[in-house]
Amino acid sequence: MRRFDSAGLLQHSLEAEKMLHYPDDDSTLVIAPRLTYQHDPLTRVASDTARLDRDGKSVRMEGNVRVVRESGDGRPATEISTSVLYADTDEGVAHTDAAVKIVQGKTEINGMGMKTNSKTHLSILYGPVRGTIYPRQADKANR
């Protein structure tokens, strides 16, 4: 499944092992979804399952949710792990109330709940938040 913007450019794509459509509420259950946002840098999201609303804009991803933003702008790749994630695919925003782990290079931060924006690369973690933040020089030295 692919979604394009008004200029005809690919915004994001969704691939899966299996999709089951439910006509009663027009939702779709997706098994092993892999969502790719075509921003720079590229962002990939995967989980065990996902449920999409009728137009595919609202997604609830569940089970081993993993978001990976590729390296770019001199930064190492960023990986976000959680158990459930709600996403608005057109806006590129997502949130969860579950435990979250963010890893970027050697830096690791854990929190309970998060809001994130794939376009601005801004994530807000909710407490309690714990982590160890390393300067970028430490990340570069350990690559």
Short description:
4% of the residues lie in helices and 59% in strands. The chain is built from one helix and 13 strands; from the N terminus they run βββββββββββββα.
Structure description:
Helix content is 4%, strand content 59%. The protein has 143 residues and is mainly beta. The longest helix is centred in the C-terminal third of the chain and has 6 residues, at 136-141. It starts with a strand and ends with a helix.
List the main descriptive attributes of the protein structure presented here.
143 residues, mainly beta, lipopolysaccharide transport protein A fold, 13-stranded antiparallel beta sheet, 1 helix, 4% helix, globular
Order of helices and strands: EEEEEEEEEEEEEH
* Biggest β-sheet description: 13 strands, antiparallel
Report the end-to-end length measured between terminal Cα atoms. Answer: 35 Å
Report mean pLDDT, rounded to a whole number.
Answer: 87
Q: How many beta strands in the DSSP annotation?
A: 13
Could you say what the CATH architecture is?
Answer: Sandwich
* Count of discrete alpha- or pi-helical segments spanning 4 or more residues: 1
**Count of domain modules:** 1
CATH superfamily placement? Lipopolysaccharide (LPS) transport protein A like domain
CATH class: Mainly Beta
As residue ranges, the low-confidence spans are: none
Cα-atom radius of gyration: 16 Å
Going by helix content, strand content and strand pairing, the class is mainly beta
CATH topology label: lipopolysaccharide transport protein A fold
Strand content is: over 45%
Shape: globular
